[in-house]
Amino acid sequence: MRIDLPGGAYTLREPVAWPVEAAPAASRVVYAAAHVVADPLGDNTPGSPAAVDWEATLRFRRHLWSHGLRVADAMDTAQRNMGLDWAATRELITRSAQEARAFGDPAALVSCGAGTDHAPDAGDLNTITAAYAEQIETVQAAGAGVIVMASRQLARAATGPRDYHQVYGKLFGVAERPVILHWLGEMFDPQLAGYWGSRDVAEATESFLELVHAHAPMVDGVKVSLLDEEHEVRLRAALPEGVRLYTGDDFNYPSLIRTGSHALLGIFDAIAPAAAEALRALDAAESASGEEDRARHLARYDEILAPTVPLSRTIFEAPTYHYKTGIVFLAWLNGHQDAFAMVNGAQSARSLTHLAKVFRLADQAGLLADPELAVHRMRALLAVNGL
């Protein structure tokens, strides 16, 4: 099948029939950070409250669970701080945790972001702590696990590492079970520059590790999105025993997961079938009785994930915080939603040439499930844009 794209005609490969297996990976704990589906008939113009297509949003979470992935919800992939207001976020947390009950324990299947975005004017540490606590309690009441998100308000108000330690130290007392801490780099959100008390990454890391070591029993893991593979490997080695490193590196995830990181990744929203199959290969490699079998399974792991890396690096290219557009675009091409629409009008955040490149790379990675549907929708998008 061929399609005329910006840059020339393109011939699609044969589709890949990825297996569907709900059993989770045994060797790694893996979350896909999930997007929300906008209601195409709702007013999702920039600045308007989010109008969400709840049926399609929950259907997509069932898709992720059906492949054995956990869901990280109400995170930046769901457009927190970029259009998903607190009213919609609160409903998403409740609905997602309730939907998870059909698959098992929601605390094991879904973890949700708790932040301070519902209190945009919070300017002192006590107010910020109270805002965090309110969202943590909302997540816990729903039955989901807690991911303590990086806070724009705290980044603005903190004067140094001690302020971060004061706020987070109190939050561990609010949490009913161990939480995941989220370190989101400024490439994902420029307003988080200097998080943990310093713009120097080495100094920030020292502060972060001090906090984690002081509260290790209440830290399930740390999710790090700095797009720096060497830094992540060093940080992983410095964590207390039992505290996981969840890679958030959408550029280098194959090698980081292979060498020991767990995962909490936005790109796994888009590549869930391939990611799940690769993780099964990694499980087989780590349980193999001989080096030959281990090498064969690792080669399969590499073979599956290698073509997803150019796709991910394109989706997450600068400005990185617009990666959600590519994620939603692929969900639309694959029939997970009926419209290429996003809350806050974010579908316009990437160019047509960018989306055409995403289309080609997704096909090359075997991630266009129904090529006829994908071509039909891509042609419709091109026609709307005069091509």
Descriptive account of the structure:
Helix 6 (161-174) packs parallel to helix 7 (201-214). The chain has helices spanning 54-66, 86-100, 106-109, 125-142, 152-157, 161-174, 201-214, 229-238, 253-258, 267-270, 272-287, 291-305, 308-315, 323-333, 352-364, 371-384, and strands spanning 2-5, 8-11, 30-33, 70-73, 110-114, 145-148, 179-184, 219-225, 244-247, 262-265. The relative contact order is 0.14. The strands form two sheets. Strands 3-4-5-6-7-8-9-10 form an eight-stranded parallel β-barrel, surrounded by four helices. 47% of the residues lie in helices and 12% in strands.
List keywords for this structure.
10 strands; alpha/beta; 387 residues; 8-stranded parallel barrel
Compile the SSE list and pairings.
Elements: E1 2-5, E2 8-11, E3 30-33, H1 54-66, E4 70-73, H2 86-100, H3 106-109, E5 110-114, H4 125-142, E6 145-148, H5 152-157, H6 161-174, E7 179-184, H7 201-214, E8 219-225, H8 229-238, E9 244-247, H9 253-258, E10 262-265, H10 267-270, H11 272-287, H12 291-305, H13 308-315, H14 323-333, H15 352-364, H16 371-384
Parallel strand pairs: 3-4, 3-10, 4-5, 5-6, 6-7, 7-8, 8-9, 9-10
Antiparallel strand pairs: 1-2
Helix pairs in contact: 1-2, 2-4, 4-6, 6-7, 11-12, 13-15
